[in-house]
Amino acid sequence: MIRVYPARTLGPPFPMTQAANKPRVLFLCTGNSCRSQMAEGWLRELGGDRFEVHSAGIEAHGLNPRAVASMGQAGVDISAQRSQTLDGFLADPPDVLVTVCDRAAATCPSLPAKTEVIRWSFPDPASATGSEEELREVFARVRDSIRERIEGWLAGSALTG
Known about the structure:
The protein has helices at residues 35-47, 65-73, 102-107, 132-155; strands spanning 7-8, 24-29, 52-57, 96-99, 116-119, 159-160. The chain is of the alpha/beta class. It has a single domain (7-160), classed as Response regulator (Rossmann fold). The strands form 2 sheets. It has a 4-stranded parallel β-sheet. The chain has a two-stranded antiparallel ribbon with strand order 1-6. The longest helix has 24 residues, at 132-155. It starts with 6 loop residues before the first strand and ends with a strand. The model is unreliable at 1-19 and 157-161 (pLDDT under 50).
């Protein structure tokens, strides 16, 4: 059974099961191409080496070039990250799973009770339509929203899903 924490603080002590005593955090979305990749990049950037950070999708759609460009404009390079599925994490589940879209939250398989599940929801920038400038703006809005959510999470403020 998945435990859901719609409002959660993540302040010390963090749950830890890894030998390095770092909480293992996995961001999950539908295709692991935009939102979860951005979240992985932001937590690596903002959380430093305090976390073991990964991202995955229910499916793997490949890294979206617009997500890479948008994060690059914010000074975060995610170009070396890879798109992968959740399947690779089921044998060794993370300490914290953060879903970043409603579909991933609804279709995520059951995880062990030790895994804390946090649900966030961001619009899918890959589904946006419009001119290149409009698309850049959509990606930037989602990127910035993810950053704000992670900054608040790191600061230990209660966040709503």
